[in-house]
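Reminder to self: keep the SMILES exactly as supplied, no canonicalising. Ligand is NAP.
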Amino acid sequence: MSLHDHGAAVAEPVVAPSKRSARSALPATAIRIVLAGARGRVASALRAQLARELPSLRERIGLGLHLGGAFDRRGSVFEDAGIEPLALDQRLLHAAPPTIDQLLARLHAASTPTLLVDATGSSEWAAEYPHLLRAGIGIVTANKRAHSGSYRDWLALQQAARAGNVPLRYETTVGAALPVIGTLQCLRRRGERVLALEGVLSGSLSFVLERVQQGTRLSEALAEAIALGYTEPDPLEDLAFVDLHRKLVILAREAGQRLEPEQVRIDSLLPPGGSLAGLLAGHCDARWAERADIARRDDRRLVAVASWQLAGQARIEVRAEPAASPLARLAGGENLVRIRSEYHDALPITITGPGAGPAATAAGLLGDIIAACREWRPRD
Ligand SMILES: NC(=O)c1ccc[n+]([C@@H]2O[C@H](COP(=O)([O-])OP(=O)(O)OC[C@H]3O[C@@H](n4cnc5c(N)ncnc54)[C@H](OP(=O)(O)O)[C@@H]3O)[C@@H](O)[C@H]2O)c1
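Structure tokens returned for the bound complex:
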């Protein structure tokens, strides 16, 4: 696997002392971060990482980053001089719920370049991206919604970022901090055709299917996943493959296809007309117990796989994979993506590791923030 610019931005080479002092003498580019979803799981983990890393970023890479604003649906705080990331909970305690117009006015008002870091799952904020980008506000996002709608909207986003001459980064929308999107972008930048990709991209589905494979009823496995907080706030997003669908649409577009969401063929855990209540009441238990039995007898495992091929279709399905296949051997919470390209055909590029979790996702966001800010940095 080749390290693309996202990864390289995190792994800054050590510089010799003389060069280091020359670097720190460079004027730091002042960039204001505004954090959306400030008290959510991912944003809270990001605040902890910002508190640790912000002071040294100026020294290491000449970035004068500061947290200049943060908000969620319950409150907002903006301060030109910068906010201590870990003091934010306290600062937001008595804040009033902001309106989107108030927040947009604060975003547009600053004289310093502004990077919106979106750690919400909000469609409302995703819809604002094109205007923000055109107005010169950079965006780093973990929110899949803006990039997984119609192809026309996806294109409009890319055009808006170019028109505003600002960064737009979304590596964490697929596989948390794993460099999946960056790798696809790197392949395409150097003109290497992407031929196919497939991946296990949902920790919650892997957990449920593994439990079913062990003999647990589907309804029980689901209830367990929900109780452990492994599913999205609305578990139907996982079970009807809504989340996986968004991820596959994003990946196929990075691979070069003008894919529309409705072109993806989906065979989900939820039967047509089925409901979460029905699944939890055991309506599908017998069917899935039988599928797991058949797979086990063949020494196979049930795995939810999202796949795309240049010449074929985009598809999401539960497959019975040979037990020895890398897709079937993943531990809970692990993701794996295989990319076949012009020069990596017989032996595909494989990217694997934790594909979710607030700390990993926050680390991916921080990598994107640093890479985005370096795009704004004056050349030395
Ligand atoms: N958790 C993961 O492992 C993971 C991995 C990869 C990507 N992601 C993505 O990262 C994003 C955040 O995930 P999370 O797990 O941190 O979710 P979360 O814990 O539910 O936090 C979401 C935050 O967004 C805020 N929010 C929602 N709608 C908003 C709006 N319209 N305006 C302002 N704030 C809004 C919420 O504020 P209130 O509390 O005030 O409602 C909350 O602070 C999601 O898009 C998710 O898909 C998550």
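Points to follow up:
The pocket of NAP is lined by residues 36-37, 39-43, 71-74, 119-122, 124-125, 142-144, 172, 176, 233, 356-358, 361 (CB under 6 Å).
Confidence is low (pLDDT under 50) at residues 1-27.
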